[in-house]
Amino acid sequence: MVSPNFTYDYNEQGRRRHPIIEKQTAMIFTMNIPEQAMPEWHHPVLLGTCAKQLEENFGHSETLYACNTYQFADYSRYAFTYFSEEEKRRYRDEHFPQDLANAHALGRRLVEQAK
After folding, report:
1. Residues in Cβ contact with 27 at an 8 Å cutoff, skipping those fewer than 6 apart
2. Cα gap 4→73, rounded to integer Å
3. Which domain holds residue 48?
Protein backbone atom coordinates (compact mmCIF):
# COMPACT_ATOMS: atom_id res chain seq x y z
CA MET A 1 0.00 0.00 0.00
CA VAL A 2 2.76 2.47 0.89
CA SER A 3 5.60 1.48 -1.44
CA PRO A 4 3.92 2.57 -4.70
CA ASN A 5 3.28 5.97 -3.15
CA PHE A 6 6.71 6.37 -1.52
CA THR A 7 9.02 9.07 -2.78
CA TYR A 8 12.77 9.29 -2.27
CA ASP A 9 12.77 12.98 -3.11
CA TYR A 10 13.80 15.05 -0.08
CA ASN A 11 13.59 18.80 0.45
CA GLU A 12 16.30 21.07 1.88
CA GLN A 13 15.32 20.22 5.47
CA GLY A 14 15.82 16.51 4.83
CA ARG A 15 12.10 15.72 4.84
CA ARG A 16 10.37 13.76 2.13
CA ARG A 17 8.37 15.82 -0.27
CA HIS A 18 4.61 15.45 -0.58
CA PRO A 19 3.21 12.03 -1.44
CA ILE A 20 2.94 11.08 -5.08
CA ILE A 21 -0.83 10.63 -4.69
CA GLU A 22 -2.64 12.18 -1.76
CA LYS A 23 -5.30 9.95 -0.19
CA GLN A 24 -7.59 10.27 2.77
CA THR A 25 -6.76 7.53 5.28
CA ALA A 26 -7.86 6.52 8.75
CA MET A 27 -7.05 4.01 11.45
CA ILE A 28 -9.79 2.61 13.67
CA PHE A 29 -8.47 0.77 16.69
CA THR A 30 -10.76 -1.34 18.85
CA MET A 31 -9.43 -2.56 22.16
CA ASN A 32 -10.78 -4.03 25.33
CA ILE A 33 -8.85 -1.76 27.71
CA PRO A 34 -10.52 1.36 29.13
CA GLU A 35 -9.52 4.66 27.54
CA GLN A 36 -7.82 5.88 30.74
CA ALA A 37 -5.46 2.84 30.61
CA MET A 38 -4.18 3.69 27.13
CA PRO A 39 -1.25 5.87 28.34
CA GLU A 40 -0.14 3.17 30.79
CA TRP A 41 0.05 0.68 27.90
CA HIS A 42 1.68 3.33 25.65
CA HIS A 43 -1.10 2.96 23.10
CA PRO A 44 -1.16 6.62 21.96
CA VAL A 45 2.55 6.46 21.12
CA LEU A 46 2.62 2.94 19.67
CA LEU A 47 -0.59 3.23 17.67
CA GLY A 48 0.21 6.81 16.76
CA THR A 49 3.18 5.62 14.72
CA CYS A 50 0.80 3.80 12.35
CA ALA A 51 -1.26 6.93 11.76
CA LYS A 52 1.91 9.00 11.35
CA GLN A 53 3.14 6.61 8.65
CA LEU A 54 -0.14 6.91 6.79
CA GLU A 55 -0.09 10.69 7.07
CA GLU A 56 3.50 10.96 5.87
CA ASN A 57 2.88 8.63 2.94
CA PHE A 58 -0.59 9.77 1.88
CA GLY A 59 -0.93 13.31 3.23
CA HIS A 60 -3.82 12.73 5.64
CA SER A 61 -4.79 10.34 8.40
CA GLU A 62 -7.29 10.32 11.22
CA THR A 63 -7.37 7.97 14.18
CA LEU A 64 -10.39 6.67 16.03
CA TYR A 65 -10.22 4.60 19.21
CA ALA A 66 -13.06 2.39 20.43
CA CYS A 67 -12.06 1.44 23.95
CA ASN A 68 -13.33 -0.97 26.58
CA THR A 69 -14.97 -3.17 23.96
CA TYR A 70 -17.03 -6.24 24.70
CA GLN A 71 -14.55 -8.98 23.84
CA PHE A 72 -16.58 -12.20 23.75
CA ALA A 73 -20.12 -13.01 22.66
CA ASP A 74 -20.34 -15.55 25.51
CA TYR A 75 -18.03 -14.88 28.45
CA SER A 76 -19.09 -18.15 30.13
CA ARG A 77 -17.06 -20.09 27.55
CA TYR A 78 -13.77 -18.49 28.65
CA ALA A 79 -11.64 -18.43 31.78
CA PHE A 80 -11.58 -14.67 31.97
CA THR A 81 -11.59 -12.79 35.24
CA TYR A 82 -9.48 -9.77 34.25
CA PHE A 83 -12.57 -7.74 33.33
CA SER A 84 -16.14 -7.99 34.58
CA GLU A 85 -18.60 -9.15 31.93
CA GLU A 86 -21.36 -7.09 33.53
CA GLU A 87 -19.25 -3.92 33.43
CA LYS A 88 -18.23 -4.64 29.83
CA ARG A 89 -21.87 -5.16 28.82
CA ARG A 90 -23.00 -1.99 30.56
CA TYR A 91 -20.20 0.03 28.95
CA ARG A 92 -21.01 -1.46 25.51
CA ASP A 93 -24.69 -0.67 25.87
CA GLU A 94 -23.88 2.92 26.85
CA HIS A 95 -21.03 3.63 24.41
CA PHE A 96 -21.36 1.37 21.36
CA PRO A 97 -23.94 3.60 19.64
CA GLN A 98 -21.54 6.55 19.96
CA ASP A 99 -18.60 4.46 18.72
CA LEU A 100 -20.67 3.54 15.65
CA ALA A 101 -21.66 7.17 15.11
CA ASN A 102 -18.01 8.24 15.39
CA ALA A 103 -16.94 5.61 12.82
CA HIS A 104 -19.75 6.68 10.49
CA ALA A 105 -18.76 10.36 10.83
CA LEU A 106 -15.12 9.47 10.15
CA GLY A 107 -16.08 7.63 6.96
CA ARG A 108 -18.24 10.54 5.90
CA ARG A 109 -15.38 13.02 6.44
CA LEU A 110 -13.01 10.87 4.39
CA VAL A 111 -15.49 10.71 1.51
CA GLU A 112 -16.15 14.45 1.65
CA GLN A 113 -12.44 15.28 1.73
CA ALA A 114 -11.77 12.94 -1.18
CA LYS A 115 -14.25 14.75 -3.45
Report:
1. 47, 50, 51, 54, 61, 62, 63, 64
2. 40
3. 3-114
Strands (E), the chain: 25-30, 61-66
pLDDT at position 57 is 81
Looking at residue 51, the DSSP 8-state letter turns out to be H
For the chain, what is the largest distance between any 2 Cα atoms, rounded to a whole number of angstroms? 60
Assign 70 to helix, strand or coil: coil
Residue 90 pLDDT exceeds 80: yes
Give the number of domains in the chain: 1
Give the model confidence (pLDDT) of 11-68 as tens digits: 777 776 666 678 889 999 999 999 999 999 999 999 999 888 888 888 889 999 999 9
Beta-carbon contacts of residue 46 (< 8 Å; ≥ 6 apart): none
Question: Which helix (H) or strand (E) is 100 found in, with range?
Answer: helix 85-114
Amino acid 47 reads L
Q: Which of 63, 1, 3 is nearest to 31 (CA)?
A: 63
